[in-house]
Amino acid sequence: MDKYNSEGYPDPTAYEALTAVAKSEAPEKTYRPLVYLASPFAGDTERNIERARGYCRFAVSKGCIPIAPHLHYPQFMDDDDREQRELALFFALVLLGKCDELWVFGKPSEGMSREIAKAKKRGIPIKYYNHKCEVLEYGT
Question: What is the b/e burial string over 103-122, where b = at least 16 CB atoms within 10 angstroms of the residue's CB?
Fold first, then answer.
């Protein structure tokens, strides 16, 4: 918007009106919390990956931005290699520190237990869900 009309003279009334219209048409920015999703991975990995994808969709439906490292890191790191698994878990715990909440789905595995312990240490709120995305418990 220009504060001047086509002849170069100041036109504050038109400028203010056009600015107000532009602001009212701008898409509203809403806050979406970053949530870290922890769910089982090892064992029946195909089933667990499909469930984790569903948990991510659930988080999006609740207005959140999901972070599911156990879906990301196995794409290029070997979960069966102890050294790579530890490195991936280290990366995941760094990401956990950036999140607003930890959502835990299902019975915690060893890796999930480490994520829960780190969240508790950092005071990150934790929500526990069953595999049907029903809240079981909420706290820190």
Answer: bbbbebbebbebbbebbeee
Q: Which residue has the tokens 């794409």?
A: 75
Q: Three-state SS for 78?
A: coil
Do residues 105 and 133 make contact, with C-beta atoms less than 8 angstroms apart?
A: yes
DSSP lists the bridge partners of residue 78 as none
Q: Note whether 102 and 119 are within 8 A (CB).
A: yes
Q: What is the pTM of this model?
A: 0.78
Integer Cα distance of 131 and 49 in angstroms: 12
pLDDT tens across 75-128, in order? 999 999 999 999 999 999 999 999 999 999 999 999 999 999 999 999 999 999
Residue 131's Cβ-side half-sphere holds a number of Cα atoms within 13 Å equal to: 9
Cα separation, 55 vs 104, in Å, equals 10
